[in-house]
Amino acid sequence: MTILSDPSDDTRLADAYAAAGDTVARLDKDRWLAALYAPASHRRHLHALWAFSAEIARIRDTVSDPLPGEVRARWWADMLAGRRGGEGEAHPVACCLLDTIRRFALPLDAFDRLIEARIFDLYDDPMGSTAELEAYCGDTSSALIRLGSLVLADGRDPGGAEVAGHAGVALALTGLLRAFPFHASRGQIFVPAEILERHRVDPATILAGRTTPGLLAALADVRARAREALAETRRLAATIPRSAVPLFLPVALVEPWLDRMDRPGYDPFRSVVELPQWRRQWRMWRAARRAETCAAPG
């Protein structure tokens, strides 16, 4: 006997993927543009991953207290583990994420670590060390590159884990530096405490929006680490699987962002650090052209 699928299920899933794509276009435009370089058949699955990441990342912005935010984050973990029954099917992003996980046999532990890392965002605890900060970047940014690599390789491991790790750190550190004044305005400091202590920076001055020589030196240290991660990404560029190239295109934006923050007179609380959208698109296009000649098979 042949069991026919319910057409309404196909429509619901298509609508869920469309909603995820809209979410990424609105909240993560650079990744949305990068997905245009991926096969059309796989773009919606990348959108599902990135929309999930965006949903988790903005939980703090939607709650007034950490506890309900943590409950919401735990819902995602429970839903992915199958502990919430069919609740996930009613949530557009969860619905298409579950479908993507099933299609490509994506590892659930990577999602668990991402969720745990983002729970840190809900509180104002200090980031103790550089190692802790890089682990946070790995569990969030690097993990998305690795998961996307599995999707674009149809579920098999194409390699490139090391370069994905460095690329994710470079992207995440640069993103945190760009968001530094926003985080400080709501009581968060992602600059490791060990770096602040080395430069004798009182966290209270950061929360008060005061720029000091010590703070500028501390931020320069973080930028230097981002540049190191970028240099490692470039050194390992030949190990990037050809199928995964679209996932690495946003890395082309790291250097110009860092250059703007390295300019004389930079003030993290007052300087306008921006890169026109056309220039961002152009840099990713140029990176895609270069990758055609140096990426690894796979």
TrEMBL record:
UniProt source species: Siculibacillus lacustris
Pfam families per record: SQS_PSY
InterPro entries named in the record: Isoprenoid_synthase_dom_sf, Squ/phyt_synthse
Name assigned to this protein: Phytoene/squalene synthase family protein
GO terms assigned for molecular function: transferase activity, transferring alkyl or aryl (other than methyl) groups
